[in-house]
Amino acid sequence: MALMITDDCINCDVCEPECPNEAISPGEEIYIIDPNKCTECVGHYDEPQCQQVCPVDCIPLDPDKVETEEELMTKYYKLTGNTPA
């Protein structure tokens, strides 16, 4: 499941540099997450880094982008060029 940024975002800029997949970028009003790049940090970290640094807790799972751990790992491999061990 990809993550999303809600309207509670205060544009503090802390989430964007934490994303290992460069899935977070400034939108017209708030930061946005590209669901095609978001792996919830699967393959990189144990927990989504953007959620860890967000001071207002505005980065929940996107209920419209449901993905399994396996699907997230496959996306990680495609984005990074890494191959399964």
TrEMBL record:
One of its GO terms (molecular function) is metal ion binding. Coiled coil: none annotated. InterPro entries: 4Fe4S_Fe-S-bd (IPR017896), 4Fe4S_Fe_S_CS (IPR017900), PSI_iron-sulfur_center (IPR050157), YfhL-like (IPR047927). The keyword Glycoprotein does not apply. Residues 1-29, 31-64 form the 4Fe-4S ferredoxin-type domain. GO terms for cellular component: cytoplasm. Keywords: 4Fe-4S, Electron transport, Iron, Iron-sulfur, Metal-binding, Repeat, Transport. This is Ferredoxin. It comes from Hahella chejuensis (strain KCTC 2396).
